[in-house]
From TrEMBL:
The gene is holA. NCBIfam families: holA (TIGR01128). Residues 207-324 form the DNA polymerase III delta subunit-like C-terminal domain. InterPro entries: DNA_pol3_delta-like_C, DNA_pol3_delta_N, DNA_polIII_delta, P-loop_NTPase. Pfam families: DNA_pol3_delta (PF06144), DNA_pol3_delta_C (PF21694). GO terms for molecular function: DNA binding; DNA-directed DNA polymerase activity. Its EC number is 2.7.7.7. GO terms for cellular component: DNA polymerase III complex. This is DNA polymerase III subunit delta. The keyword Transferase applies.
């Protein structure tokens, strides 16, 4: 059998891979793991490994990790001396796979480029010699539903602020939630408060900057400066490191609002901006125009440049920027 495992929810993907290997009763020296992103990798050579007959009748697994031929673009090392295309090689193997060998194509953390010939070959043989498992990012509604189901299934009771803190710290990732669930199982308590969640789940700098931006946009002064202090405590003591990432958060909101003003639908905004949740960002915009966010970006650019020239104290000026716009941001 040929298995394609793809997607950004890597925890589930890894679980499924282990389950399939266990089901196939393949382990140890019967597993051949190849780095399919390497410039020296040859699909023809890998498929030859699959076609080799086992002398001891043991089932084998050939794993192609991060296969370059399922990504966009081309690579010189992928050309065959025989002149055969990767898609032709894959088509031939999908038509007559070795029944004693399982072939795994592992796209961990990404989805294959839908335009590649190789993916089209795999999809053409789906549910015959090929099984495809997709572990994609969940919508906010699906994620909330999964979280509620898993917590209820395991008998966990979280206070409202603990649940809110948990959702914030996992950054809309089901994989991060499942990792947190493992930690909760080891923690030993079924009733958890916010302090428990803060102890169990670290708040990474990316989440901190997101929280800083969201609190600022929501006109939450206390939350804004609490998030800023947390960032400084976690390695962002120099405000000049915060400015570009904070500006990028404002820029994302600006892009969504501008697209919305131009009459684009949510689906069109997702395609143009790459933003999964434009409705959430529009909610944070609170009816403010794109011109308002453009002004903020201009102020941040001036603040950054004056700090680089040594004309102002970036830390003090950023505090003043926040206070000024928190008081008059509506």
């Amino acid at each position: 059998m040929i298995y394609l495992l793809e997607g950004t929810e890597t925890y589930q993907l890894d679980q499924k891979k282990r389950q399939l290997l266990k089901k196939g009763k393949t382990e140890g020296e019967n597993i051949i793991d190849l780095d399919a992103s390497s410039r020296t990798f040859s699909l023809e050579g890998a498929l030859n490994q699959c076609s080799t007959i086992s002398l001891f009748a043991d089932r084998r697994a050939v794993i192609l990790s991060d296969p370059y031929f399922l990504k966009s673009g081309t690579r010189a090392a992928g050309k065959k001396k025989t002149g055969k295309d990767n898609s032709d090689l894959l088509e031939a193997y999908c038509t007559a796979p070795n029944p004693d060998t399982d072939l795994y194509l592992i796209c961990r953390g990404f989805s294959p480029d839908r335009r590649t010939k190789e993916l089209k070959v795999l999809e053409a043989h789906e549910n015959e010699s090929v099984l495809i498992f997709r572990f994609l990012k969940l919508s906010p509604r699906e994620l909330n539903q999964r979280i509620s189901e898993e917590l209820r299934k395991k008998g966990y009771q979280l206070t409202d602020d603990a649940l809110a803190e948990l959702k914030e710290r996992i950054s809309d990732s089901y994989t991060e939630f499942l990792k947190t669930l493992d930690k909760m199982d080891l923690y030993g308590k079924k009733q958890l408060n916010r302090k428990d969640i803060e102890h169990l789940v670290s708040l990474n700098p990316d989440t901190n900057i997101w929280k800083l931006g969201d609190c600022f946009l929501s006109q939450d002064a206390a939350g804004t400066f609490r998030a800023l202090d947390t960032m400084k405590a976690s390695g962002y003591q120099d405000v000049r490191r915060i400015l570009p990432v904070f500006a990028s958060r404002i820029r994302k909101i600006y892009s969504v609002v501008r697209c919305y003003e131009c009459g684009l639908s949510y689906e069109e905004i997702r395609k143009v901006t790459g933003n999964y949740y434009p409705d959430k960002d529009l909610g944070l915009a609170r009816g403010r125009s794109s011109a308002y966010f453009l002004r903020l970006l201009s102020e941040l650019a001036d603040l950054d440049q004056s700090g680089k020239r040594g004309e102002t104290d970036p830390s003090m000026e950023f505090d003043l920027f926040l206070l000024r716009n928190l008081n008059h941001g509506a």
